[in-house]
Automatic annotation (TrEMBL):
Top-level taxon of the source organism: Bacteria
Name of the protein this chain belongs to: ABC-type dipeptide transporter
Record's catalysed reaction(s): a dipeptide(out) + ATP + H2O = a dipeptide(in) + ADP + phosphate + H(+)
Gene Ontology cellular-component annotations: plasma membrane
UniProt xrefs under Gene3D superfamilies: P-loop containing nucleotide triphosphate hydrolases
Enzyme kind, highest EC tier: translocase
Similarity remark: Belongs to the ABC transporter superfamily.
GO biological process, one term: peptide transport
Protein location: Cell inner membrane
NCBIfam families referenced in this protein's UniProt entry, alphabetically: oligo_HPY
UniProt keywords, alphabetically: ATP-binding, Cell membrane, Membrane, Nucleotide-binding, Transport
Species per Swiss-Prot/TrEMBL record: Biostraticola tofi
Length: 333
């Protein structure tokens, strides 16, 4: 029996991340649970500081154990990641899961050429011989829109522009065609043509290999084009989860409604981006027992100030909402 049919590719249960900061201990990710299947693209949206990056960094094992504590269960293809030692985890990273970061410099090594770095990943995780590896490096660079791949392969990270570095990092992440790709604002620094090309590349690899993709982006056009399902995060928690059609047509959390309403209309902007919504995200270091969106919510009631609702299934398949009044809120235009 095919394993991928019986269990999700990635399963995250009750993930909680706590960090020691100058303001004391904060928990930027609280009680986050979700899963993703092969052949699926899951989007994560939410304003800056809502814990999207910390969530995926925890999954990849990238948070320093010195200042962070990660609780909960993370399983990739049924295998618990937190039980692996750092060497085993490195094996996984690259072959079974890879990540594209917001900041490309953090994943490129300044002392090796770009070609060497992509080739090293291929050496570790694929059976390709030296000559085939060199060929594959050139193909990968071409696929991410680099015009002179042979010359670029011989260059060092500091010799190329930020946008080029971003593309090289994407080539590196795609080198071994990982089962799970996590992309944290992958195309923010790129112009529209290159962005389109990269997203098409991700989709074609997904169609060919069944790769699962988790994508964090502020760009709702990208979400609409790429994703089958979306998680909405607010102050470290998932406040809504829905399939893409339901999310855009019937959002039931007031925060999701505000996020979608704040996007400029298509006629005014080429890209529809999430913009500011009224009020600001409360501080993580101020303890509060009510709903974390209460202060900004147009529908707030006394109950919301006192008790934080749990994320619950509502009467629509696969639709979860963290709001006491989701059913009523959903009916308002
Ligand atoms: N290394 C760190 N030290 C202290 N605070 C951090 C650190 N990394 C993240 N945070 C805090 O955790 C919260 C979530 O951050 P992040 O996951 O990066 O948000 P985003 O949703 O924008 O990706 C923010 O309030 C951020 O300031
Ligand atoms: Mg982030």
């Amino acid at each position: 029996m095919n394993e991928s049919q019986t269990e999700p590719l990635l399963q995250v249960d009750n993930l909680r991340v706590s960090m020691a900061t100058q303001q004391g201990i904060i928990s930027p990710v609280r009680d986050v649970s979700f899963s993703i299947n092969a052949h699926e693209t899951l989007g994560i949206i939410g304003e800056s500081g809502c814990g999207k990056s910390v969530t995926v960094q925890a999954i990849m094992g990238l948070l320093s154990p010195r200042i962070t504590r990660v609780e909960g269960d993370i399983a990739l293809k049924g295998r618990a990641l937190h039980t692996l030692n750092p060497r085993q985890l490195r094996q996984y990273c690259g072959r079974d899961m890879a990540m594209i970061f917001q900041d490309p410099l953090s994943s490129l090594n300044p002392v090796f050429t770009l070609g060497q770095q992509i080739a090293e990943s291929l050496r570790l995780h694929t059976p390709l011989s030296g000559a085939l590896r060199r060929q594959r490096v050139v193909t990968l660079l071409e696929e991410v829109g680099i015009y002179d791949p042979v010359r670029t392969a011989r260059m060092y990270p500091h010799e190329i522009s930020g946008g080029m570095r971003q593309r090289v990092m994407i080539a590196m992440a795609m080198a071994c065609e990982p089962a799970l790709l996590i992309a944290d604002e992958p195309t923010t620094a790129l112009d529209v043509t290159i962005q389109t090309q990269i997203l098409a590349l991700l989709d074609s690899v997904k169609a060919r290999t069944g790769m699962g993709i988790v994508i964090i982006t502020h760009d709702l056009t990208v979400i609409a084009q790429m994703c089958q399902r979306v998680l909405v995060m607010y102050l470290g928690q998932v406040v809504e989860e829905a399939d893409i059609i339901t999310l855009f047509n019937k959002p039931r959390h007031p925060y999701t409604q505000a996020l979608l309403a704040s996007r400029p209309s298509f006629s005014h902007a080429r890209k529809s981006r999430l913009t500011e919504i009224a009020g600001s995200v409360p501080s993580l270091s101020t303890p509060f027992s009510g709903c974390s969106f209460a202060d900004r919510c147009p529908y707030v009631q006394a109950r919301c100030q006192r008790h934080n609702p749990s994320l619950r299934d509502i009467n629509e398949p696969g639709h979860r909402v963290r709001c006491w009044f989701a059913e009523q809120v959903g009916e308002t235009p």
